[in-house]
Amino acid sequence: MEILPVTSQFNVGFSGEKAWNGPTWREAPVPAPTEAALAQRLERELRAAKGASELATAEVLVPAELLARASRQTLALAEGEPCGSRGAAVIVDVAGRRLAAFKIDPNTLTTHEIHLHLEHDATNWTSLLPQFLKNLTRGGTIIISPQFTIEKKKLFRSQAE
């Protein structure tokens, strides 16, 4: 077999410039999650974590507006970060026990952590029942309080600090 050099006669109609002036797949920005999408993701992660823990037999009740408010505050805390909300790792704990942890965008460098602390609701009617009646149920019902705390932990320091 003979190898022939490629001459300029084969470069007809082609130039060294980029034919597409738009962003390439590596340059295309990944959209930041919306409040509703983050609330759905929180719900999915809590369901998965509940199924993998000792809470699998228990029924966990979460107030309807809790996840929407938590996702709204998460996005607000992430506004000033270099990668925005895409650089966040969200850690959810219930009564001091870590229940779920996930990165909002696994392809983005984690620049900060958002810690979401949920508590049991002690003001509901089940708290008035004696413990032996609670133990008779199939695993009990855990009711999450509508109040929560959320805090941000930065994982870097800028030169200005």
From TrEMBL:
InterPro entries: RTP801-like (IPR012918), RTP801-like_C_sf (IPR038281). One of its GO terms (biological process) is apoptotic process. Gene3D superfamilies: RTP801-like. It holds the Pfam family RTP801_C. The keyword Thylakoid does not apply. It is found in: Cytoplasm. GO terms for cellular component: cytoplasm. The keyword Transcription regulation does not apply. Keywords: Cytoplasm. It comes from the Eukaryota. Belongs to the DDIT4 family. This is Protein charybde.
